[in-house]
Amino acid sequence: MSTTYLEAIREGLWEEMERDPNVFCIGEDIGEYGGAFKVTAGLLARFGTRRVVDTPISEAAIVGAAIGAGLMGLRPVAEMQFADFISCGFDQIVNFAAKCRYRWSAGVPIVIRAPSGGGIHGGPFHSQNPEMWFVRTPGLKVVCPATAYDAKGLIKSAIRDNDPVLFFEHKGLYRRIKEDLPTEDYTVPIGKAKVVREGRDLSIITYGAMVWTALEAAETLAAEGCSAEVVDLRTLLPLDRETICASVRKTSKALLLHEDTRTGGMAGELAATITENVFEYLDGPIVRVTAPDTPVPYSPPLEEAFLPNAEKVVEKALWLHRY
Amino acid sequence: MSAAEATAAKIHSAAPATGTPEAELAHKCLYYMLLMREVEDRVERKLYRQGKVVGGVYVGRGQEAIPVGSALVAQADDVLFPSHRDMAVFFVRGVSARRVLAQYMGRVGGLTRGRDGNMHMGDMSAGVVSIISALAATVPVAAGAALAMRYKGINGVAFSYFGDGATSRGDWHEGVNFASVQKLPVVFICNNNQYAYSTPLNLQMACANVADRGPAYNMPAEIVDGNDVLAVYEATVRAAAYARAGSGPYLLECKTFRMTGHSAHDMAQYVPKGLFEEWGKLDPIVRLEKRMIEQPWATQGEIDEVHAAIAREVDDAVAWAEQSPFPDAATLLDDVYENV
Q: What value does the mean pLDDT take over residues A79-91?
């Protein structure tokens, strides 16, 4: 039976809560209501209010309480109702959780789930991709799964990890994609990228929902005689530089794609990584396809113009291919 | 047992001349208050000025009764979240003066091995969680620790310390509200020293007392003489019993005065001069010693001996800290993660 991306996350939470009595969920409206997107639906009935904790509208308290519980040896999974609201818990994440181990050898084994991404007409405060606020904070891990398989395997790895993990789940994927998942327990390692389509002519390096955009573009490109490789980063921090560089060594051209805005986006770090490590393999300039440097607009024509899509990727990729 | 720890143990066991529990408690209070006063004095007036403490120095001179009177109530399983003016919490929880001084001096012997300075340190094995610089950030974290204790069936209490200024932060209100809604076992302990850096109380809050915030959270709140260590102790006994019984959090507002600037570089010229004199007369150590002699729980000679023993202990601790090596720069990248 096929499992959606959303169901995969729920299964991962459920199975980890069954496996380890120290795992619990905390967040707004996650209990009886099952969460704004219903990711936690059914957990309350199975695990009770002790392990599914509904909170006041207090992101700093949700993250702070998760940190306190994590320091005490529990494994909390905190839900931000929308990734956009994570800014309300920012200090707790970047100054408290991220720095405990380095400063005083205290592990903070927490997961913060954050439904992110646009394409649902959510407007400026329900559509953002705030991963880069955290990717430049040493001590955090940042995960952005693109598939149901990876979503389940990565949420499990995140829960079992002894450091704070931010889990950005793209809400545009929640019910859009599904696949058959293994029935047995499995995990996907944090910090490992994956080549999801092999190619010869150029590498499209991306993550999250844009993996599907890249794959769609790669199909079109194949028809145009351009063989594109697609690399799904899966984890942004720590970054799997080896897989990135191996792909560029193979194809000699890199197109960096993300839904997040341009300046200070992941593509900048990827470009620097490529030039530092495999500059001599490059046969063309590094190309970026990203959202522009604006808030995420609401009205459909504006949002469509904002979001990268396969057409934009194909156009840039063909230019790079001919370079 | 180190020499310094042996000194402390000797004082504890030898102290109660009259043998009553009250006398024993008073001797413990005196020891820890004096130890904090002496260590902070060395840090602020000697080591800092000698360039041996290179970063910020924030002391709790005049406020020692609050960490001492409260932390002595804590039980082994309890978890404490001291503020930057609560050094004595570390001593009460078994962290030596040696390690506190090494921490201040950026040495490997400090609790953060040179990764952080001053009171920015913790040790989960001692049940002490490190603050961060953003005040009140530990308040929701303390609520989470209390949640975890209840979750695990530990009948423990979280002791959450902060100053008056921290109660203006959103984190404070979110943490206190969450603890109240969940009826979590937290004792909130405010050291109201009347200044947040240079900002006086009347520019910090519109209510007269921090305790006035208690009813908004349906939380008992008590105003305590923060310069009377035994009063702090007794109030904390009430608060911890309430929290431990599962009744919810409890707020103690310990009124005191910051007898220094915000930090060692701050001359505090914004504080009306008379206030230092007025509060100086209420020094918690002087008051306890007077009471100990009146009771009588101690003779002047015994008290003098405690002073002398503290001086010896801190001499030893400074020497130990100065001999503790600086961290090797090769360790810079270690321990950002457990495994990466």
A: 98
Residue A189 within a domain:
no
A20 Cβ under 8 Å from any chain B Cβ: no
The boundaries of the domain holding residue A302 are 194-322
**B-contacting residues in A 103-142 (Cβ below 8 Å):** 103-107, 138-139, 141
* Residues of A annotated catalytic, as ranges: 126
CATH 3.40.50.970 fits B3-324, yes or no: yes
Chain A closest CA to B129's CA: distance in Å?
9
| Choice among B18-32, B157-171, B205-219, B225-239 with the minimum mean pLDDT | B18-32
Contact list in A for residue B111 (CB cut-off 8 A) is 104
Number of Cβ within a 10 Å radius of residue B173: 20
| Range from A224-228, A269-273, B38-42, B272-276 carrying the lowest mean pLDDT | B272-276
Q: Are residues A248 and A104 in the same domain?
A: no
Residue A186 lies in a domain: no
CB half-sphere exposure, B101, CA atoms < 13 A = 29
Nearest CB to A68: which of B112, B130, B141?
B141
Distance CA(A206)–CA(A293), nearest Å, equals 18
Statement to judge: residues A13 and A104 lie in one domain = yes
- Statement to judge: residues A175 and A202 lie in one domain: no
**Quick one: pLDDT at residue B19?**
83
The average pLDDT across B58-68 equals 97
Do residues A218 and A270 both lie within one domain? yes
The DSSP secondary structure of B202-268, one letter per residue, reads GGT-SSS-GGGGGGGGT--EEEEETT-HHHHHHHHHHHHHHHHTTS--EEEEEE----S-SSTT---
Give Cβ neighbours of residue A154 (< 8 Å, ≥ 6 apart). Answer: A12, A143, A145, A167, A187, A188, A190, A234, A235
The predicted pLDDT at position B18 comes to: 61
In the predicted structure, residue A37 carries a pLDDT above the cut 60: yes
pLDDT of residue A1: 79
ipTM of predicted assembly, 2 dp:
0.96
How many pairs of residues across A and B have Cβ atoms under 8 Å apart? 138
Q: Does residue A95 belong to the interface with chain B, where contact is any CB pair within 8 Å?
A: yes
Residue A102 touches partner B, C-beta closer than 8 Å? yes
Q: How confident is the model at residue B32 (pLDDT cuts 50, 70, 90)?
A: very high
B108 touches chain A (CB under 8 A): no
In this structure, the dihedral spanned by the alpha carbons of residues A219, A220, A221 and A224, taken in order and rounded to 10 degrees, is 130
A97 vs B: CB within 8 A: no
The answer to whether the Cβ–Cβ distance between B148 and A69 falls below 8 Å is yes
